[in-house]
TrEMBL record:
Record Pfam families: 3H (PF02829), HTH_11 (PF08279)
Gene3D superfamilies: 3H domain (3.30.1340.20), Winged helix-like DNA-binding domain superfamily/Winged helix DNA-binding domain (1.10.10.10)
The protein's name: Transcription repressor NadR
Coiled-coil region: none
Endpoints of the signal sequence: none
Helix-turn-helix type domain residues: 6-58
Organism, as annotated: Roseburia lenta
InterPro entries in the cross-refs: 3H_dom_sf (IPR035922), 3H_domain (IPR004173), HTH_11 (IPR013196), NadR (IPR026043), WH-like_DNA-bd_sf (IPR036388), WH_DNA-bd_sf (IPR036390)
Ranges of residues in domain 3H: 71-166
Length: 181
């Protein structure tokens, strides 16, 4: 079992449990040391998976939102429409990032939850001398989008596709932007 598969199993086990599960018990279930579990939990937390440590073991926030990374392309003038598409369907945009062949992943926090946030973001871009991060990569960029469930993310993906905003991953792009190399 790979590390990613094991971490997915940890999430599944914690989501399926009504009581906290100790690191020792998780280690026995997954046939690894407790230290490996501690490291896996730290990696999951770094990915914004809300796992709490209690005196009886680990618990996961079952009301936690799920996430998906979308690769998109559009013009600067279409930025508000792209973000509104995501927000109006129930998602929120955590960040924007690009994958540059030389520099790797370059990321900026957005935390856009509403149309008001979009207006503020666009106004800030227009008032400054900086251009959008997507301009570094000819318009191609990515957003980490959170929503209450996969169905919302599916609908967001569908509508972004219908509007022509989705872009295809290339062979040189890493599939998982969250794992350390």
């Amino acid at each position: 079992m790979s590390g990613e598969e094991r971490r997915n199993q940890i999430i599944h086990i914690l989501q399926s449990s009504d009581t906290p599960i100790s690191g020792v018990k998780l280690a026995k279930m997954l046939d690894v040391s407790r230290q490996v579990i501690v490291q896996d939990v730290a990696l999951l937390r770094a990915k914004d998976i809300c796992i709490h440590s209690t005196n009886r073991g680990y618990v996961i926030d079952k009301n936690q939102e799920t996430l998906r990374v979308f690769k998109v392309i559009h013009t600067e003038e279409e930025t508000a429409e792209e973000l509104q598409t995501i927000i109006d369907l129930g998602g929120w945009v955590k960040d924007v990032f690009v994958y540059h062949k030389t520099y790797g992943v370059i990321r900026g926090e957005l935390n856009i939850h509403s149309r008001y946030d979009i207006e503020q973001y666009i106004a800030e871009l227009k008032s400054g001398k900086s251009s959008q991060l997507m301009n570094v990569t000819s318009g191609y960029h990515y957003h980490t989008v959170y929503a209450r469930d996969e169905a919302v993310l599916d609908r967001i993906q569908e509508l972004l596709g219908e509007k022509g905003f989705l872009a295809k991953l290339q062979e040189y792009e890493p599939v998982n932007f969250w794992e350390e190399s």
